[in-house]
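Aim 2 progress update. The chain analyzed this quarter is reproduced below.
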Amino acid sequence: MAHTAFSAVKKADECGHFYSAQEYDLSQLLDTGASLLELGRSCVLPDYRAGSVLQLLWQGIANYIMDHKIDLMFGCASLHSTDIEELAAPLSYMYHYHLAPYGLRPRAVDGRFIEMNRMPQSEIDPKAMFAALPPLIKGYLRIGALIGDGAVIDPVFNTTDVCIVAQSHMVTKRYRNHYERKTQKNFS
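Predicted structure tokens:
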């Protein structure tokens, strides 16, 4: 049985809220009527943040998406700093190259919103910026994920967060084939 936006909201209400709602206005996502999956924090020790562990993480996500017919995934992903000037290039890169369309674009809540458009697009080396992103954010972007509007400093984790939105049908053919081989299931 697919999770509808209603059942996702019901589950979030049972838990108290969506974690991402502390940082982002999710109303545009909730209004889509799509089946939703909030992806929470993935905490992996630094020595294990390599291909095989991330591969298992993505394989589990792919299985869940297929088994539950998820339309949209969303959640917060972190850059490992709270120095916004230090993060100007990666934030600007994500803003210029991966901003979600208006109808699917969560916006950082008032009072926590940090402008991501900190540098002109012409000053950004997209290949270098993509390579410099944390592995999890790169993984999301590789499957076609998009970024919400505004970053948020998370003082508890000493990070700067962005909101990730991924439409299951937008997963690139390369990754569909990869996960189908790994899971022996078909995306539909």
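Residues 1-10 have pLDDT under 50 and may be disordered. The chain has one domain: 5-40+47-183. These observations will guide the mutagenesis experiments scheduled for the next reporting period.
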